[in-house]
Design a protein that fits this description.
Elements lengths: L2 E20 L5 E21 L4 E5 L9 H13 L4 E7 L10 H16 L6 H11 L3 H6 L3 E5 L3 E4 L6 E6 L6 H5 L13 H5 L11 H7 L1 H12 L5 E2 L6 E4 L14 E6 L10
Parallel strand pairs: 3-4
Antiparallel strand pairs: 1-2, 2-4, 2-5, 5-6, 7-9, 7-10, 8-9
């Protein structure tokens, strides 16, 4: 096999995000449900026989050493593989949105290169490599929507009824470290249980990061108010500036605030690469 093209890297939404505590090492303890959606980046891989790794940006410029290249390098180092790859990255999922775009790219890179290089590592081994790259990477490798706990490493697959969303991303992004370091962040939400979520999956809980994020990003507040004017109750996803609302009726988005990227999305039952 010399190439793999059109490899999907889907985004996720946090249906809720509760901060339940903080470890002695400073990491926050979380509970969340991660739901895959059909807003995807596309990745393209070609074998290089010189062992080098190169990347071509097919939409907008990425950081010089992004998670795609870091994932490929980590897989080489973990396996001793002498093959390389040229990787084309067609970005669609915005950065600093809280939608896991970079982590999803890293996971799809690990899955694709595991196949392209004929390494035959099990997913558990890929997840160990992925966890060193970012807390969300193992989720995207798992293949299923999931209940998330701990610092993101405790993953329980769950089924969630399919639905549609309106996702809106203001032009301004959010720095995760600024949110988690804010003294006003609520860090003691009571523990939830899966059965409680299952009784009301699209109305359950809240995002503990949102009050802090709204102070840091007025554009997000404006976007939530605009969605409210459409009869949609929006909340923040993850630690980024994107917000989402369950879409229960046709909604005109032509009057979106300036600079806001709006997309209608549907949930996915599983990751497009789950069978790999």
């Amino acid at each position: 096999m010399q190439a793999l093209y059109d490899i999907a890297a889907p985004a996720k939404l946090n249906l809720f995000l509760h901060v339940t505590g903080r470890r002695a090492d400073g990491y926050h303890l979380l509970q969340s449900v991660f739901l895959l959606i059909d807003w995807c980046d596309q990745l393209h891989f070609e074998v290089r026989h010189d062992g080098a790794l190169s990347r071509e940006d097919l939409s907008w410029p990425l950081p010089e050493d992004d998670l795609v290249l870091r994932a490929a390098r980590a897989l080489q180092q973990a396996t001793g593989c002498t093959l390389g790859a040229h990787i084309g990255v067609e970005k669609s999922v915005p950065a600093q949105a809280g939608m896991g775009g970079g982590s999803s790219d890293a996971a799809s890179t690990l899955l694709a290169l595991n196949r392209l290089w004929d390494l035959r590592l099990p997913r558990a081994a890929l997840a160990r490599i992925g966890l060193a790259l970012g807390a969300d990477v193992p989720f995207f490798l798992g293949g299923d929507n999931a209940w998330i706990e701990g610092v993101g490493e405790q993953i329980t697959p769950i089924a969630v009824a399919p639905t549609r969303f309106l996702v809106a991303k203001p032009q301004a992004g959010l720095d995760t470290s600024l949110i988690f370091s804010d003294p006003g962040l609520k860090r003691d939400t009571d523990l939830a249980i899966i059965s409680g979520f299952a009784a009301n999956p699209y109305g359950f809980g809240h995002n503990d990061l949102q009050p802090v994020a709204e102070k840091l990003c007025p554009d997000m507040v404006q976007t939530i108010r605009w969605l409210a004017s459409k009869g949609l109750k929006a909340r923040m996803t993850g630690s980024g500036s994107a917000v989402f609302a369950q879409l229960l009726h046709a909604t005109d988005t032509q009057d979106a605030p300036q600079g806001v990227l709006v997309r209608e999305c549907k949930s996915l039952e599983c990751h497009p690469l789950k069978g790999w």
